[in-house]
Design goal:
The complex is a heterodimer of chains A (112) and B (387). Chain A has 112 residues and is mainly alpha-helical. Chain A has helices at 3-14, 19-26, 31-49, 63-66, 71-80, 96-107. Helix content of chain B is 4%, strand content 49%. The chains are: A mainly alpha (112), B mainly beta (387).
Chain lengths: 112, 387
């Protein structure tokens, strides 16, 4: 999480505002946003990793492929990209918490 | 009894009369990537006429045509190879030929269909009549290491050119004896992502992701080896992120020049095909994915990677600049011109439709419903090298 977002988050927490903001801090995007993220992963990440996440030019992203990899590293790969490979940084389109949520779903069962 | 027999016979005759005779020159298909369907279309009536399901995972699917334009061979992501009859609107045969595929090509004489595979990395040749496996050429680039194959293109003499993403090579496999193929290898550069053969079948170009430049092989003089063109087109500047790989095919060549997508730059690069020197670059509104010339070469249509995939830019090759900017729909994945280019079909994935535009005045002519449409393939590809 970037410092500015963290401070922004703290501000929300300290002023105890809406529940959805708290959820975002906890890494669970709201339902509408979850739907958007699933669409991005299946359709746009899918252009390299396959719509069914079985891999393409990019590696497969099924639970059995990710099981032995550290979750923080996977979230960092989504957020910052991986230099030297075609994996681009997605930080302009999602937060670190959302990247972590995507990894969590990929490692269990990714929604349709 | 006799009357009954005659009645039955007449019914049978009617049943035999079958569909009316017709040609295939104005037919085509739309890939519906999410649901494993293809919609068959007519480019004269600009209407769908049939829909076929059961084609498996069609993300990144592509199609090539038999010489008569009657049969389409569809390569699915899941390694499925499906032969479709466009006249009878049915699947003729379907096989699973690999674990993970990225497309394919058909030989000059139309007898061999070749699939290019990511897993296991390599190419496989099939009899176009029966889909019987004829031979396979693994993309082994170091002992025990197999590369994903990209950029497969048919060239003269039943040879196929392609590149190895992990191996950094161009390869040319000769299937003139389809069960005993022979392969030549050429160093290409870092991370080839796709390739194209020029419409005359002479030059094979390979886009490189891992370095600024394009590798080129003269297929008429392969002994001269591959060389680089457009080297250092990024001028050492930091690359913009690429959220989708561009696609190359022979449609990039128009009016003696090749119009190619830059990697990590929002530009179309122009190369003179006689000298292979850069002669210009045109700024566009995103990372180009498809840079496609209208069949007459007067216009170049460009679509873009996420997040700019709602846009389409049209370059006029005479003016050398973008002359029309549009935002026709959500997630424009692919474009296909009518055989002689008077209109263009655009697939709008997230709008669940294909949009048809007049290329002369950019007026919208119609739309066709399709579920998550991606590739659009017309039978006019049947007679073109490299399609």
């Amino acid at each position: 999480m970037s410092p500015s977002k963290f401070i922004f988050g703290l501000f929300f927490l300290s002023t105890a505002t809406v529940g959805s903001a708290k959820l975002a801090i906890a890494g669970e995007p709201d339902v509408a946003r979850q739907k958007e993220l699933v669409h991005i992963v299946r359709q746009d990440c899918g252009s390299c990793h396959g719509m069914t996440l079985k891999g393409g030019l990019g590696p497969a992203l099924l639970p059995e492929n990710l099981r032995d990899k550290p979750t923080e590293g996977l979230a960092a790969t989504i957020y910052y990209g991986r230099p030297g490979t075609p994996m681009p940084p997605w930080k302009a389109f999602l937060s670190e918490a959302e990247a972590a949520w995507i990894v969590d779903k990929l490692m269990t069962e990714f929604p349709e | 009894m006799r009357l009954l027999l005659i009645a039955c016979f007449t019914l049978l005759l009617n049943a035999c009369a079958g569909p009316q005779l017709r040609g295939t020159g104005d037919l085509g298909l739309i890939i519906e990537r999410a649901s494993g369907h293809v919609t068959l279309v007519n480019t004269t009536s600009r209407q769908p006429y049939a829909r076929i399901g059961g084609l498996g995972d069609l993300s990144h699917a592509s199609a090539v045509y038999s010489r008569d334009g009657r049969y389409a061979f569809i390569f699915g992501r899941d390694g499925g190879l499906t032969k479709i009859d466009l006249l009878e609107a049915r699947i003729v045969k379907r096989i699973i030929q690999s674990g993970n595929a990225i497309g394919g090509s058909i030989s000059q004489d139309g007898r061999i269909v070749v699939a290019q595979n990511y897993k296991p990395g390599g190419i496989k040749a099939f009899d176009s009549e029966t889909l019987e496996l004829l031979s396979e050429v693994p993309a082994e680039f170091a002992p025990g290491q197999f590369s994903k194959v990209v950029g497969l293109a048919d060239t003269a003499g039943n040879k196929f050119a392609y590149a190895l993403f992990d191996g950094g090579e161009i390869r040319v496999t000769d299937f003139s004896q389809p069960r005993q193929p022979t392969t030549q290898k050429f160093p290409a550069g870092k991370q080839p992502y796709d390739g194209l053969v020029t419409p005359d079948g002479r030059y094979f170009l390979v886009g490189l992701f891992g370095e600024d430049g394009i590798a080129m092989l003269d297929l008429w003089q392969p002994e001269k080896g591959a060389r680089k063109i457009l080297e250092n087109y990024g001028r050492g500047e930091e690359k913009l992120p690429v959220f989708k790989m561009p696609h190359l095919r022979g449609w990039s060549v128009a009016q003696g020049k090749a119009y190619l997508p830059a990697i990590g730059r929002h530009e179309v690069l122009i190369v003179d095909v006689a000298t292979w020197k850069e002669v210009g670059r045109i700024p566009v509104r995103g990372q180009p994915v498809f840079v496609m010339a209208r069949p007459d070469g007067r216009q170049i249509w460009v679509n873009f990677a996420f997040p700019d995939n709602a846009k389409v830019d049209v370059i006029d090759t005479l003016a050398g600049q973008v002359v029309h900017r549009m935002a026709p729909g959500k997630a424009i994945l692919h474009m296909e011109f009518a055989p002689r280019g008077e209109n263009v079909w655009l697939s709008a994935r997230d709008d669940n439709k294909v949009l048809i535009y007049n290329t002369e005045n950019f007026a919208k002519l119609g739309e066709i419903p399709a579920e998550s449409p991606s590739g659009i393939f017309f039978t006019s590809r049947a007679v073109r090298t490299g399609f």
